[in-house]
Structures are given as structure tokens and as C-alpha cells.
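Running co-folding for zinc ion.
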Amino acid sequence: MYDYNVPLTIEEVTVRPPADNQVVVRIAATGICHTDVSVLRAALPYPPPVVIGHEGAGVVEEVGRNVKHLRPGDHVVLSSIATCGHCLYCRSGHLHLCESGIQTALAGEQIAFEKNGSPIAHFCGLGTFTTRTLVDASQAISIAKDIPLDRACLIACSVITGVGAVINTARVCPGETVAVFGCGGIGLNVIQGAALCGAARIIAVDVVAKKLEAAKIFGATDTLNVAGISESSDEVRALTSGIGVDYAFEAIGSPEVIRQAFLSVRRGGKAVVVGVAGFGVDVALPACLLSLEERSLVGSLYGSANMARDVPRLLALYQQGRLKLDELITERLTLDQINVGFESMEKGRTLRSVIVLD
Ligand SMILES: [Zn+2]
Ligand SMILES: [Zn+2]
């Protein structure tokens, strides 16, 4: 990506040799995530030139001198967040909040490639829209070799972000009620996370009929098409005898939808924001409900994931047929079709487009 709002180009670049704590990964498959579109559209500014893409899986080709837990040939799912292992957050078990993690990943200071001597960054410290890339060893999570990499790659962002928000951030219990606002790649994974947790009601909310059909496949018990309806929270409350849901998940990143999610929870209920709003965007809420009804509004970053723990767990569920990955993939593309994949994502035509390189 050489500039915002300009189609991506495919060209030869040089991968830098790995530092002591880095590994070179041959990318086998990578999903196109809405966050990549946000970078291209400057909604989430990341200074070009940069290789974007962050939902990847592949095979380790080379490891730095200090890397002990990986060796060439290992299959890996790539984590969008590096962990240092010794900051306040890593020490307290909140690995996804690591100081060297997402903030650094979005700062545009990590260089993996060169072209004609000029440095090229890699988004999230990954840059998966490439055949080979360089990542911090903490971002490469090894997996069993019998798991197809074109499905495993989805764990790296949409699945962990959605399922993790339910299991790790909210900790939904069996029998509870859940509403999910936005049924794209993340929202569908929130829905299947709620189903895995045994939620009794899972209310899917969207304005696109096709996405609501998909929501049913992933475990939604009710669907609400709120096209043309401004107070979607009223519809959710009506489905729960006027009480509201235990948890509402917002999977879009829109201030108005965050407000509707908050308005749809019961007394003591929790609205969980998973979608990433544009920088500088504020949200308005009836503040009295925070104390008078003890409602809360919380955020969830990357499914509050501990990737070394969560990736094997999720893949075990996939192998048992209890976590849906195949159903997330609408189309498989080659790398040179990447701009087609971006267009599909922006027009809402796909659940997930996966670029297959191997
Ligand atoms: Zn993503
Ligand atoms: Zn750390």
C-alpha cells in the first residue's frame, strides 16, 4: 500500500533477515479483515508504504538466534499482538494489552521489508498480504500440521476477536441472553461464541437479510432486520419482555450502534464494544443509566486473547465440529485478486475472502 485510497500493488520486495527474536514465515493463507480496509481508507491511519494484512497462517522458514519454541517447518497462526512477557500487562496476565503490543503495531515503526533500499513497514508487525514476512516470535503460535491453514488463518483475527469477546471478556454463562449488533465476520463469531457458552437467547441484529441468514447458521436463535429502524434497542427489548438482554455486543464500531447496544441491556447488564470506531469519534449515552441501573459499557480488544492458550483450544473445537470455520469463507482468491477481495468486503458481499498462497 503506497497511499490511502489507492488500489494495492503486487510487487517484489526484500524481506529483512530476522533479528534474534524474530521469525520468517511463509504465508499460506490470509483473510481480508475490515481493519485492512480501514487502513486503506485512512479511517485507521497507518503511514504508507506498508504491507497490510493481519489474519494469517503459514509455515516458519527461519528463526532468530534467541527463538527456542519454534523451528523451521512449524505451522503457525499469527497473532496481531506481540507480547514482551515482562511489562505490567503481561505480568498480570493481560497479554493482549502488552505495552509492546497493539499500540506499537499501529504506530508504523516496524520495518520488515525493503525495496531499492527504502524501508517498508508491516501492519500489526505482520503484513500478511505477502508470500513471506517477518514477525516477532511471540506472534507465531504453533499449531498441529493436520489443520488446513486456509481455515486456521481465520482464528488470527475474526474468530479470536468475536469468540474471545464472549468467552474471555464478557464470560457469558449458560442460559444468559445475548444480542449481537452487526453480523459480519466479527459478529458471526460473537454469535458462535455465545452459542459455545450456552446462551439461551442469541438475538442477531443487522440491516442485511443475507447476514441474518448466516447468523442462524452460527447459532442465532432470533434475528432482527432493523433496516430503516433508528431505535433498534426497542426491538431487542421487545423480544425480551421489555427487560433487555444480559449482554449486548457491538461488532461494527459505530457510535450510534454502540448507543443502541447500551440501551438494549437490562439493569446490571453489560454492553461490550468489539467494533473499532474511527479515531476521534465520540459516543453519547444516557449517563444516569450507568449508576441508576448499574449498566456498564466495556471494550474488548482482540478477544482479550491469550493466543498461546486460546488458539489450540479453538482449533480443538474446530476439529470436533463445534467451531465453524469453513462456513465463514465466502470466496478464495489469489494474491493478485486482492483488490477484488477489498471491493467484496466494502460492498458487504462476503463473510470472509481468504487469499490462498500455498
Ligand atoms: Zn482483523
Ligand atoms: Zn508485555
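Result summary
The mean pLDDT is 95.
Residues 33, 35, 54-55, 157 surround zinc ion (ligand 1) (CB under 6 Å).
Job closed.
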